[in-house]
Amino acid sequence: MSDIPIPKLCYIVCMVLGFGLLSARWIFFSVEIAGFFLVLLMLFMTILRWRIPRLRWTLVADGVVCVIFYPWTVVIAMFAGMYYRLYFMAVLVVPVLVFFDAYLAAASLLAGLCGAFLGLWERERERRLEWRDKEVGRYYELEALQSDLFTATRKIEQMTVVSERARIAREIHDNAGHEIVAAYISLQTAREAMDNPDRLARALPLYDAALERLDNGVNKIREAVHNLAPVAMLGVDALKEKCENFPANKIDKGIKFSAFGDTSDIPVHVWNVLEACLNEALTNVTRHARPSFVDVNLDATPRLVRLYIENDGVPAGGAPANQVRPGSGLRNIRHRISAVGGSLSVDADAGGRFRVVCVIPVHRSE
Amino acid sequence: MTIFKFALKRGFFSPAALILNLALPLLLMIVMRADGLGDQGLFLIAMAVMFGGFFMAKGIQNDRMEGVLLRILSGPVTMRSYLIQNLLGAAVPMLGLSIVIGIFGVVIHDWNMTFAVGMVICYALLAATSIGLSFVWSSLFKSKESSSGAFSAVMTLVSALGGFFVPLNLMPDVLFYLGTLFPAHWASRGIQILIDYGEFTQMYWFSLLAMLLYAAVYILFGAKRRLI
Fold it and tell me: Full-prediction pTM beyond 0.90?
């Protein structure tokens, strides 16, 4: 019973009540056999239509038969017809009014209006349910997309690491490796020449050649390392650079950045999210507050990384205490953080201080 | 037809159904005249048929409560086929019983053919409405306790208002017409007409039509409700 929606429940109750009243009227006021069979037939047709919804058009036939044979049943036919949007059945009121009774016509009209109201209510509920289902579907789609994106990011990260290792190995093997091997062979030859007094004079050039090759090798290793060094800042350096280079001329004490813990093994995708979070927070600070200071703390523990951004100077009434409603920027950041399994919380106090705390779990490589 | 066969077997081997569907009606047929019951015996047989029909289709309720239905429907069986076969499994023995009663009447009590056929149709349709009611019962109740409690109350009321205990013509008007809301009343009325007139009057056909409509309403209602 609990899964029946309210408008449908009202409809069923009204129908049961209608049939009950008709039966009672038949028992107490008119006992002609035709009335009984008409009520029973209507009950049969009602259940048939309930069982096979495509037979709802038979309500029109019901209405006509009711008007002709037993006008009291028109009330039920009108109610059911209007519920199922057969609005033209309202014309049945006219013959009832002309040939029978004004009270019965009024009762039929009222029943029709009630039926139409319940029908519209039910349709509205169905539309809302449909809309909600669509929204839920979209939400799940978005969540699946985010999850796919996250998985793809992790895979790209792993592939990048593998290909980068291969590139470093190739650089060392192709450039420095050859020079070092050549120097090793030259040194071995020079060592043999030193053992033989006749060939001692040849050892020195070989030794010099080996030194030269080693020098070349070291230079090539330096070049390779220099080429490998990233141009853009990464990880904690990127956050620090962001804080240092952020246009903070209106902030009296500037932006203070501190990092604690081992940040060496935090995955790249986590840094991306943290950077986006810091960007959004600093942008919000300059847009919505007149701060005298901004503190940015990064705490890295073996299991999680926490970015804490605090500022003052939030105007009174700008953000109700303990009831901060994040805008679209923070909402997007929250979605990104959720996608990596973390959480974002924002908080403001009565003293005009505003805090953004982002916590992301990390799975460090053992 | 496996379900049909199983429903038949289950119906025949149930002690309640055996007593109500075979022993009691036939015993009543035999002792009807000898014991001075007179025509009232026919109404008592009708009551036995009504209860018997109900018990024959009660298997659906047991299937539902014991989770058998869920296991059956996990196989390649549709709900419609399950219901139709179960209803047939209950209806066929009841039709057989009605015919046996008719034959007994002709052989033991010298009923004429019109009376016998009329009684067979009346009993068969009453059994059909009982099976339909049992079907509705199965879809309405989820526990045996509440089902049994409500069953005793409703059936006593139906039997009393239906004219099985007190002849219809002795009833007050309000109770008489209140009884028309139950199929038992129409069965009693049909039997009474056959006893009084010995032929198929217009009212007799009306009684059959009412029982037919009730059976259709019950079966349609029961088929719409979810059993699992």
Answer: no
